[in-house]
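#lab-general

N.A. 3:47 PM
ok so I finally got the sequence cleaned up, no stray characters, all 221 residues accounted for. can someone with queue access submit it? mine expired

B.Y. 3:52 PM
send it over

N.A. 3:53 PM
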Amino acid sequence: MRLSEEAFERAYETARALGEETRFRIYRRLCLSGDPTSVSDLADAFSLHPNAIRQHLARLEQAGLATSRPHREGGAGRPRRLYRAVADPLVGLGSRSVPALVALLQDALADLPSERPVLVTLGEAWGRAWARRRKREEGTPRTRRGRAEVLAGELAVWGWDPRTRQDNGAMHLETARCLFPDASGRGCALEEGLLAGLTEGLLNGRAASVSVDGCRLEVTV
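B.Y. 4:20 PM
back already:
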């Protein structure tokens, strides 16, 4: 099953909108903020002119990553706008759409930031969002073994070719394939974040050990 045109455009807009580092940092701040945030607050936080902040926020709204509403504090004058993040950019994309989504992200890598920490953080956010979607739609087992089996299933759907084995009552899980084998290193960093976010979101810390290095994930439960 391929991505619908609407889902494809949404995923593509997400990748493009977060490819600019300052815009990504603004989106991250909105995600971490517990309250709606004003343009002036963001301008102070990033030492930017309010008009520059508005341009970034407009791009985030266009991509469906942020929403805003007017807020009047009393008195005359135009009400200021308050912004909050839409924190699940991948919600609505079914699991059978994953191969098309992976191909899309591969094509979009060149438009994403080159800084490894930014890419890892971006991947983690997407991985956690995907895990939340998976748990809402299908639930998750209560046992560590059951959660690990769900994780293995998701890794297989994404294309990481997971391998599992049993050893003295413990279950070992590791990936055997890279999704984005690009020479620039962008793909490696994005995969590391995706794997970390998926693992954290689906296992909820219920693992004896977790190691993530690029496209290499090793988990023991």
